[in-house]
Amino acid sequence: MRLDWDHLEVRLSACGYSQWERGVRCSITWPRSSVGDNDIWIFNAGNAVMDMRNGKIRLDKDSIIWMRPGHEYKVDQDPDDPIGHVFIHFRLIRPDGSDYFPDIAEIPEVFECFNHAHWHAMGRNIVRIMNLTKRDQSPGQDADIRKTASVLLKSLLMGIDLCDALARPDNAAARTNMIAIQAAEYFSDDLRNFQPIEAAARHFGLSRNHFTRIFTAFWHMPPQEYLIAQRIRRARHLLVNSDSTLEEIAASLGYSDRFFFARQFKEKTGIPPGVYRSRNGRKRNSP
After folding, report:
1. More confident: 35 or 68
2. Three-state SS string across the chain, please?
């Protein structure tokens, strides 16, 4: 990775989906010098030309761009093929609380990504999550929603950074980091199905030992422990935010029975799931 993501906080400001008007060239300039945040666009439709720092760039439905302060971005779309894109405004914050704006020598404005459909799906999910803040939520719930969306956005930015870096054939570290990120997604796609390590290793064309070393080096835990941690994280959410019984929660996470789920939950959190629920606002189904 080109940016030190371990020491950068990602804080989402605003996001949405933009569909430009058909039949209009829409020559528009954004004076980014007057806007104090970063802006990601993930295109899914249209053709346009934009003035970037390195000159005019043609953009299409597979483009991803990162605009930042200090430049005026002029975009001119094809009136017969209008632009559609997710936009996400965000801040990068250093440990000392100051804003960070990477220059194009550190990370480009236009990305070359082989898995655009995945990034666009993540962008849509960020917008969906943020839209929850527009409903009748308490201030605390709004803060939790924004935090969740910001975590997902950081994952998206890290993935795009790594994916773009893979275009450099000598970057072996970027390739192994990408495998670790994709493996985490592979495990988390369906928490009900505990994927054997051997099957995951075969999926990525690696031996079990090599796959485990790559995963553990990136996530600081072996893959089996990672999946258990994700199950417990999801269980905590369901215990507090749903009326599902312990049996229903256990089944939704792939546990063979309620008692094994309760035992593993207590091992990882120090308290039984029923006690966790009662302490955090739910009173049903103590074990």
Report:
1. 68
2. CCCCHHHCEEEEEEEEEEECCCCCCCCEEEEHHHCCCEEEEEEEECCEEEEECCEEEEECCCCEEEECCCCEEEEEEECCECCEEEEEEEEEECCCCCECCCCCCCCCCEECCCCHHHHHHHHHHHHHHHHHHHCCCCHHHHHHHHHHHHHHHHHHHHHHHHHHHCCCCCCHHHHHHHHHHHHHHHHHCCCCCCCCHHHHHHHCCCCHHHHHHHHHHHHCCCHHHHHHHHHHHHHHHHHHHCCCCHHHHHHHCCCCCHHHHHHHHHHHHCCCHHHHHHHCCCCCCCC
171-287 homologous superfamily = Homeodomain-like (1.10.10.60)
Q: What is the pLDDT of residues 133-164, one digit of tens each?
A: 766 667 777 888 888 899 999 988 988 887 77
Other CB atoms within 10 A of residue 90 CB: 22
CATH topology of domain 5-160: Jelly Rolls (2.60.120)
CA–CA separation, 184 vs 215, rounded Å? Answer: 8
102 near 92, Cβ under 8 Å? yes
Tens of pLDDT, residue by residue over 156-206, are 898 888 777 665 555 667 678 778 888 887 777 666 666 678 888 888 888
HSE toward the beta carbon, residue 255, CA cutoff 13 A? 21
What residue ranges do the domains of the chain occupy?
5-160, 171-287
Task: Report the half-sphere exposure of 227 (CA within 13 A, side-chain side).
Answer: 22
Residue 1 half-sphere exposure toward CB, CA atoms < 13 A: 20
State how far Cα 31 lies from the chain centre. Answer: 28
pLDDT for 285 equals 44
